[in-house]
Amino acid sequence: MSTLAQPANSPSCLSPKISVGGADVTKEQPNHAALVSSVATAVNLAGTLTVAPEDIGKPADILMVGMYSTLAGELGNANWEWPLGEHFVPQLTGALYTRAGETWIFWDGQLSSLPSTEKVSQLPETLDIPVFEGDLSTAPGEFFAYLGYRLEDGTIHYNGVEPLHFSVGNAASIDMRNSSTLSFTNSAGHELFSTVCPQ
Question: Where are the domains of the chain?
């Protein structure tokens, strides 16, 4: 995203990482995974960010935005006490949050109020970013996480239309893979960096 808040392409990319299980057994999950509540008791979310070559060595703020909607598509307030929110990304409905340091807080959707999760004095070629670790078994619904970085000139690089995404169900839940609140079909102008990193 340019300093004028206009979408722009970037060679940056994100490899989302979703895993479930405790310290004894951890099982990797694909992006867009549909988890049942019994395995969502120990969820670990992270991403590996590959920095655009021209940005390596520059100072930056690491940014995170999360969205949660209940199985009924309502704005949600899960047991970890994220407050309610609304609006920001077109085609998304749900409560919006951002991470300021280690704490997830309500976000009003304004780029000017987006706090830094972490400050990096020099961006490396790749950066592992922990997003969340904990129990989501009592919060059935759909979760999205957008990760990126903001340069000193205000340019933001983030994972655009393909966020870290998964759902948590329960015994009476529906298959969220067929009723996502995120539309992947209308992505023109919104993909700000590739989600598939070259190997």
Answer: 14-170
